[in-house]
Amino acid sequence: MFRRILVSTDGTPRSGRAIKTAASLARTCGATLTIYHAIPAYRTPYYPEGVGFDWPPESEYMRESAKEAAKLLAKARALAAKEGATVETAHSHSDETAESIVAAASKARAELIVMASHGRKGLEKMLIGSETQRVLSHTKIPVLVVR
Predict the structure, then answer these.
(1) How far are the Cα atoms of 37, 43, 86 from residue 70, in angstroms, in the given order?
(2) Is the pTM of this model over 0.85?
(3) 110: nearest Cα among 139, 146, 134, 79
(4) For 105-132, what is each residue's pLDDT tens digit?
(5) What does the chain look like in DSSP terms, one character per residue?
């Protein structure tokens, strides 16, 4: 059925459920599971005149955020391993989370993307948006949404 599956994670309990679901499906299909985490890109804040803050240099941000991603992905890998899946991990820095998920799925040659839905409704959904909805609109790969 599926030989390669990508699941995205942001470290939340909902994405943990998506990882378990994806890992179980990967084990059943004999597929390789890629667990992906999108890290927000480095941004220098704008300060009004006379206001100053100590902001880390880009190299420090990149190093520290990659370390945090590695920790998050190690926990996700352990969760998927309990389900018996063959696991790979990946992360990248990006301003556009949904587009980076689609790009990661393409790079991994995934035949299925698994994502959690945070279940936002109403004004919150309109203001914050839905990365899952954005992925659905940017890919031709099937997407399994876990609630």
Answers:
(1) 9, 21, 18
(2) yes
(3) 139
(4) 999 999 999 999 876 565 555 444 588 8
(5) --SEEEEE--SSHHHHHHHHHHHHHHHHHT-EEEEEEEEEPP-PPP--TT-------HHHHHHHHHHHHHHHHHHHHHHHHHTT-EEEEEEEEES-HHHHHHHHHHHTT-SEEEEE-----HHHHHHH--HHHHHHHH-SS-EEEE-
